[in-house]
Fold this protein.
Amino acid sequence: MSAAEEGGAQYERVARSGQVEEGWVRRFFAGEVELCVARLDGKAYATTNYCTHLDCLLSSGKLQDDGIRCSCHGSVFDLETGEAIYPPATEPIRTYPVKEENGEIFVAISEEDRAQSGPRRRARRD
Ligand code: FES
């Protein structure tokens, strides 16, 4: 199975489970959508790869007990909700539904996600 539809979003295969080891974070793409994929306590998570502070790549960050820490200025985000739980970032990051089947990681990407994505591009509010 390469993709399945759920809630208006398409699940896309982005990686083999073994490519995201416990405690690690890596960058993957679902088409044009750049993702930060992590594994914490056995569970795989997917978020946007861009920090809401100044756009640093979260795939260069580190995991800690309560989430992912951006390597640039130390903001921490909840992997489940995307909430900024440690400053300087105050806005949440986008998180995506993830499922693992048959040793592969699938991430649900909506049409809206696709429309707003692209290299180093994300919605701005200024
Ligand atoms: S860019 Fe991530 S904390 Fe500043």
In short: The chain has a mean pLDDT of 90. The two ends are 41 Å apart (CA to CA). Residues 82 and 93 are 5 Å apart (CA to CA). The domain at 3-116 is CATH 2.102.10.10 (Rieske Iron-sulfur Protein).
